[in-house]
# Entry
Amino acid sequence: MNQTYTTITIVQLKKMFDIASIKGIGDDFFIGDLNYKDKEKNRLPFFNNIPTRIDGYVGLFCVSGNLTLSSDLKEFRITRNTFSVITPGNIVRVVDNSPEDGCHLIGVVISSKYMAKLRFDMASFFTQSSSPMVHSTIHLNRMEVILAMKYYSLMKNVLNSKRPFVSESIMALCSSLIYEVAG
# Structure
């Protein structure tokens, strides 16, 4: 049986984030808040139970609420303090498209082109970690949540600065964040 899916770009994904909270570098990298309460406001396919492949990397940190995400036919419950990773090969969809209390997510979205520029040792990443590439949703402890929020705040501050090397600084922060999440 062939399952069909929709493919969306990170530019299309960007449209569902709270415009006031989005910070980014062109169409290659952005961070922002996603409040999922009303499926009518979220017209992208995977939030309407349609299998979707995203052309980019997405990290989702759940601040509050809950929903069920299906990734490659495995269901994951997204709850407060969970971090989920979606890679370009994943086919995802939100299974329960009307969570009772909504869901507030912080998203970090990276194009494949930008991700290729990040500096990290892929061999050690897979051999020495509980990689989110293997476990697409992990629960963060209190200290990890504090650290994740500091990364988010620092990324927003760097993106708001008018200093040179913003893109390079964000790349370094992304590399560091990947190691932290994998640890």
The CA atoms of residues 151 and 177 lie 7 Å apart. The helical segments are 10-14, 112-116, 122-127, 142-160, 166-182.
